[in-house]
Amino acid sequence: RGEIRDEVPRLKEESGGRFEPGLAVVLVGERKDSQTYVRSKKKGCEEAGIKSFGTDLPETATEEEVLAVVREYNADPRVHGILVQLPLPSHMDEEKILMAISIEKDVDGFHPENIGKLAMRGRDPDFVCCTPKGSVELLERSNIPIAGKSAVVVGRSNIVGTPAAMLLQRRNATVTVVHSRTPNPEKYIREADIVIAACGVANFVRGDWLKPGCAVIDVGINAVDDPTKKRGYRLVGDVCFEEAVKVAGQITPVPGGVGPMTIAMLLQNTLEGAKKAYEQGK
Length: 282
Hints:
Elements: H1 2-14, E1 22-28, H2 32-48, E2 51-57, H3 63-74, E3 81-84, H4 94-100, H5 112-119, H6 130-141, E4 150-154, H7 161-170, E5 174-178, H8 185-189, E6 194-197, E7 215-218, E8 222-225, E9 233-236, H9 241-244, E10 250-251, H10 258-281
Parallel strand pairs: 1-2, 1-3, 4-5, 4-6, 6-7, 7-10
Antiparallel strand pairs: 8-9
Helix pairs in contact: 1-10, 2-10, 6-7, 6-10
């Protein structure tokens, strides 16, 4: 985030103060977890010097009302990134709404064209999904080799698992994806030099499933009952940290590991979008 914070003023200075990156976040409904994520994103914008825009709509909002907000931000030259907080209420067509976001402002990287380019060799997406991008960035900044290594991604969601597997493959890892229909997932995980866990099941990956010295990126964030806590629960990942930390060479904590990196990647994507817009408008 410090790197982004240093770069934003340079862009403003180069444009004579007329140009600053802007991120718009659309929140539908009142889910506590979504509200928390949105607050974190707005705080990140403030810290990085990125202008923050936001629209909060009630759970009862219509799909057309959400699309109208997206279209308005598409047309706003002050906005260089648009994020619709997921999940959306069940009565809305998530794909239709995400498709409505201009690909030049798709800083979440969910547009099918961006995902398609990510899957193809020799193509570069405009933006890469923030959590997978942040996960791989953590590996690279920790000097963990990826090329030629065995990597297992636990989970195959459109948001994390599938794009994470594509990113690792682009960096020449040999990638296996295990999921809810995989029998004996521990058989594959035990062979992995790199494990990215993103299945949404608390403590799913056990310590004795891991190869000694492996690198573990735990994307999961799950609430489990804990009467000793004031809130009555605590947050844990998809990996049993207490067991895994005794085996893994490197492991991300939950919370405080992948989450902050995800927001950093969102801010980086927004800055990149602003740079592209500035270059095109010169």
